[in-house]
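Let us practice reading a record.
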Amino acid sequence: MTPSLTHENVIGITVIRCIPIRNHIIPYSKMPHSRRQARQDKRTLDGELNSGQYLTPNVNNNILESIINQDGKVVSSPQGVNINGKTSALMLHNKILEAFISINILNEPGEIGIYLDRYTAELSKVINKLTFDNELGDLRVFLNGSEKKLREVFNATTFNPLSASSDQIGRMPEGSKDEVTDWLYKELNAITKSHNFKLVLTKVKALSSFGTTIWQLLSPADIRVADANAASLERLFYQSELRNSGNINASFSEFRQNTRSALFDNPTTRARSERMPVLNGVPVKGVYSDAATHGLGFGQVVQRSTDPEETNKLYNLLAGEHNVPNSQINAIRRQNAPIGDLNRPYMLTDNEFKNLPGKWDEKDKNSLPQPHNPYSVKEKQPAAYSLYNIKRKIIEQRLSHGVGINRWQPYGLFGTYANLAGFPSAGAQSGGTTDVMLALQMLSG
């Protein structure tokens, strides 16, 4: 039965191009040989998506140097992934689809908002105890080889990234007179309603930061360190009246086995490197080092230069005017960064956004374009882009923020296979996403 031509079907057909409009679909394996050959010939002529390659990684001293295909050609390296024109066009469509879905979830969270409120209310209890209970805030934990107070760790992983001076999404508004902990406590307990995307971003970022903290404290290879940290977290959870307070190690073990396994963090799969920071218009003479040694997650990062004087300038650049280490790590200028407008969200490059159909006039913010025929194609762009005015919807969510795609060059097997199949990859398979999942597991009991 042919589906009705609803807007959802229009989006599905014009953007995803995967919703069937016939009664029957013939599996590829059952096509007559002549038809299969004709299809393959057409794909070759048109410039087929190049995902079906046999890839071989070249690893030296546990660092991925390149990935080559069956023809001996370099498909991926620290400079990025090589894709053909047709794949690049599909990747553009998938960037727009990702933006469209995200915009609608942020503006109309619906049932997602109900669950979000439930978990952030639990997290607010932890924030409250860390802020006002000095005994809990002073609990000792071990991180990156040194002993710290639990409040210090949360300052670095959660409170500073959400302060007004940060570049992170969901941060406290500039000019706010509240302490970041007081502001965050109120935001976590606010009811999520429609058309308040900044509140949704704050809640998601807070959950992600909480999960990051748990991950960093419980994942050390030294079991004595992990157990000592777990004991401090158990006291914090218990005093915060979290149901999971007596089950921390078991929950974390389950998470490591089923979600963020060793395969997930395989350096060949997740390989990524930072683009070189730019100082006074010139890339620094940077030296790559393991992000984990700096408490910065996964990847090859640039925290120093071969020139000691330049290293000091780089530290100041990353710390920003408020001198918070690495608080501007996603916002600084980097060599060959694809996005210049740091107020625009989502993954489109400047040129891709400029060429996106739809008019935006700052002098007439209430103007809307006239709907187009959903099946017409103008300048090889699906008319749904104009029909749903995606360009304007992106503009309406403008806020100053760091841009991960400007920071990272993904070149591991995950990013490479994703790109070859026409899907974007801003960094790598997302550790931040798994951090959210870890947070939800720890807060649910």
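A brief commentary: The radius of gyration is 24 Å.
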